[in-house]
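debug: dumping io for the single-chain case to check the tokenizer round-trip. Nothing else runs in this session.
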Amino acid sequence: MTILLPRLPAAAADRLLDQMFPAGSFKWQEFNPDCLPGEVRYAATGGTVIQPARLKRLREEIVELAIECGFGRTGIPADHSRFDMELGQWSVSCPELDSGEALRDDVWAFMTTVMAPDVVYWRFGAARTRYLGGIRNAFQRTWIRAVTLDHGDGHPDRWELLRELTEDALVQITERPSIGANPVIARALGEGWVRAAARYGKHRMEDIMRLATLRLRIRNEIRVLSFLSKQSLAAFVDAEFSCAAAEILGGSVSFPDPQTPHK
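debug: decoded output
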């Protein structure tokens, strides 16, 4: 049975953020699962409303992950990238988020504005887009990345792409709807990035990735790339990285032709 999560409408989230950041400072009265803001709503039908004790535990799990990455620990450098990766993995394994509830912006707005805004503030400061629902939401973005780039349970390195890809590469993949909404293409592009980074070096990949992504998006408008076999799609992606690298770095570089089966 679906567990119904609290939903915070965008207008209500905006009002709470106004109260949370008076004169630029952070002001929060802690999370009380037994006394949620009056604007919180639940789906009218289709499941069972989550219990306050479970809401409290979800917050505790998020905070535990953050503490491991430096949150609230004096003298410990914040490891934000690790937190994003760990939170993404947690969100995929969280049973309450294994339903259509996770597709709703207002669910994530509740989590970041009511349940754990202190963690969001540690991660992103007062940037409002990180509290409101959407692809820039501090927690929602990590779930999107994990769902999109998950190699799947049973894979020997399930979370390789979350670990290896840089922030810029992750943004290029998951915040471009024509790519991020198609896990087949998203994973192929991520895997191609890993191979290209090994060849050209991670420090050179930002411009190469942006051009390769642009070229891939254009090609995908002409040809349905997700219908290619895995090997052919990998070869196609490698060729786009090769062309992008040649344009950005100059000289003669090459990967297999898009029509050549990928080894």
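debug: round-trip ok. The mean pLDDT is 93.
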